[in-house]
Fold:
Amino acid sequence: MVPIERLGSGIPGLDEMLEGGFPIPSAILLGGEPGTGKTTLAVQSLFYGARQKEIGLYITAVSEPWWVIQKFLSQYDFYSQKLIEAGVVQFLDISEIENEEEILVKLMNNVKRIQPKRIIIDSINPIRSRLGDGEEYRELMYDLLSSLKGYGCVTMLICETSYSDLSKLSEAYLSDGIIILSYREIESSRKKYLEVLKMRGTDHTTGMRSVNISKKGLLVYPELR
Ligand SMILES: Nc1ncnc2c1ncn2[C@@H]1O[C@H](COP(=O)(O)OP(=O)(O)O)[C@@H](O)[C@H]1O
Ligand SMILES: [Mg+2]
Structure:
């Protein structure tokens, strides 16, 4: 048996569910409806790695000015402007690119140049809307995920989706792991949850866990509360 190398997620409570962390290499689909904490989880993990001198790459596919994204992220304690200025956390905007090949070339050229250990694509939805939900999009995801495998990194693919639409997504089949974030309205407050639906090579915990998001970031409780 070849032991699987893992990368600590940096999310309190999550590694315990994953036999120590994200397998390397892997592509993890981070799904959930808007506001469930996908960006928070992914960026918190990126900065956690960056504090250990690992290069992190945040790819934005939404046409939102970079300073707006930064302004929101800078509210969290894990955010560090210094790590960005030092180039340990880098940003790439692909919101303007229209076709499959150009997206793939731009992404892979930057991955080759930057050699990131953690990559976030936030989110894949605008890429799918641009390319259409057909052959071109599926080909891009397939080529991208297979090319990334050679770089020994963990890629977090953020996807705005409801739990019920998950089975319709080609990414759900292509990815090595699926983590779903969700919320429910309970006694007029919104409770947040996390569930690991799949993680290749991992005897992961099943079932929903409660999640809390604060200024410190996201944490996963060892139970449902
Ligand atoms: N400082 C904070 N304290 C508590 N909760 C916060 C804070 N900042 C953001 N949140 C919560 O995090 C949610 C946004 O998470 P985000 O990662 O942007 O979600 P997603 O990417 O899934 O849309 C907000 O809806 C809010 O509930
Ligand atoms: Mg988000």
